[in-house]
């Protein structure tokens, strides 16, 4: 094999479903994956060399350091792990980008510095930051921890100074960001990949619907040209300002006039991009593998309209797991099932179902059917 | 998870690229794969539990017997392995079907018994079978070993009784079939899957071009309705007559008038079905996993026109490996690379490139470009 596709090894910090799907996409590219993940039952064990040790284990990190490059499936990587790896192996994205994306306040400041719009916000890191913060944002907002929040966790909606103080106490008085409410009409997202040499490629503009703070559906119809062009320009500006090496996903609020504000940035593939696995094109997972290893990049907009519905653990009133109707899902044209090999737990992402259709209208109507089959 | 998608384990006899791609398709279905394969460097080791022992190893077979079902990636399974497994675990396809498909003479007889057309043939198993055999087939034919032939190996073209005798000597006087020449206009193939309960599903009708006895390109445009309907009827008849459990692929010769004769049958996914990985639909690999485990079947015709070009090891005049132009392949819209993690060797299948396009005309023109990039 020539240099482009000579055998390579990719290290991943983390071994959950994102690592599993990265590995499934890496293998056909001639890439072997090594996943450092303490959970012995993590999904990536099935298709990667699994280093079942803590994220800061020196022997495990030394094995990762022998890979051609290291990437990550979650942003809250222990700094000690980065300290060990940096200088020994390219870590993509690296500390510079993670400093933004793993910390809500730095992220918002970094987005503004790159020229991207965000919700108004106030940084709450000390008692003295509380006074006047809410008034400055119009009297209501959402208090969010700056670190470690995901899937709606670590957030409190507040409408008075008393509620703000109570919420901050409740969140443990850790550094937070108080965000003003955004009167958005919908949420969309877009992925961008960039190699160390500066080549860029983009994913599709995807429309997302959340339920209980967790992504429920993502839809790509191909009909969002204007919003997509705007999202790409923002993504390009942020990727270049932050020196992205790898792939990141921007979540946006769309305002009534069409303007996009960045809600948050994930330094990796994203749940809203799972639909790219089955639309007939390149998947976001292959795109991240390529970007991290410096392989040629292709855009990853699906040729076909595609959608995704998450399968999240739901307990019924009797405490038993409510099951998707797998038989009916299989019988619906254009569905593909993706399971993560995880045990059921209320609120846990267990898998997703992708749906492709020949046109946007058929996609929307089958998606409505599919949603009825998944609790 | 409900019964349909409760965790399952699939055993595979063999661990090469077909097993690798079966495993990559199985994991998203919640299925773990165990591959019994003596080659320590076999591709399936990357995404399956690899039992690196001989095919007849009792401990290895005992591990396979604990799976929910066992399938195979090659037809020449040692009978001892089947003897051990049968009765302990469902083996799909099993001995009944393999008795046909692994033996060219039995295969042709079984096809005729199922009502399928084949080339005229004479069975050559003893010295006395030689006399008059060629004359009966019009004076020329191809002598093929009944067992163990693949990719054009174990075949000799003959045009006289003297050549026939010499060829049979050359092939070691093993049981052979002498096939009459078929004036075919093209070669096509089609996969059929059948569960133990009798449910059937079909793949696309694919047009194949061989080079030096090895598949070079496969093309699916969706425009072959009449040939596809005929191929399905033949596949259905053979699947039912032979009691298929699992997936098999029929290769056909198309005669000038459009009639299809069955050339041979592979009791598994087939190189000509690799294009189903990237056309936006179900892949042949997912179909085999589902059929073998008795999961609901979906047809696996791609929604988009797709093609495939094999990457086969080619030595240049200087003895160095000739490389595909990977950069140009990546730059061609709609390509996806699939590598098997195998070392270069002249004539060895090392990978394939799939190509999707919005319409048949674009597909054909990009395929011509793609072929120029792959030696």
UniProtKB/TrEMBL annotation, chains A, B:
Residues 108-293 form the ATP-grasp domain. This is N5-carboxyaminoimidazole ribonucleotide synthase. Catalyzes the ATP-dependent conversion of 5-aminoimidazole ribonucleotide (AIR) and HCO(3)(-) to N5-carboxyaminoimidazole ribonucleotide (N5-CAIR). It catalyses: 5-amino-1-(5-phospho-beta-D-ribosyl)imidazole + hydrogencarbonate + ATP = 5-carboxyamino-1-(5-phospho-D-ribosyl)imidazole + ADP + phosphate + 2 H(+). One of its GO terms (molecular function) is phosphoribosylaminoimidazole carboxylase activity. Homodimer. ATP binds at residues 104, 144, 149-155, 179-182, 187, 210, 263-264. Keywords: ATP-binding, Ligase, Lyase, Nucleotide-binding, Purine biosynthesis. Its EC number is 6.3.4.18. It holds the Pfam family ATP-grasp. The lineage of its organism: Bacteria, Thermotogati, Deinococcota, Deinococci, Deinococcales. The keyword Lyase applies. HAMAP family: PurK. GO terms for cellular component: cytosol. Coiled coil: none annotated. The gene is purK. One of its GO terms (biological process) is 'de novo' IMP biosynthetic process. Belongs to the PurK/PurT family. Pathway: Purine metabolism; IMP biosynthesis via de novo pathway; 5-amino-1-(5-phospho-D-ribosyl)imidazole-4-carboxylate from 5-amino-1-(5-phospho-D-ribosyl)imidazole (N5-CAIR route): step 1/2. It is an enzyme of class 6 (ligase). InterPro entries: ATP-grasp, ATP-grasp_carboxylate-amine, ATP_grasp_subdomain_1, PreATP-grasp_dom_sf, PurK, PurK_C, PurT/PurK_preATP-grasp, Rudment_hybrid_motif. It comes from Deinococcus radiophilus.
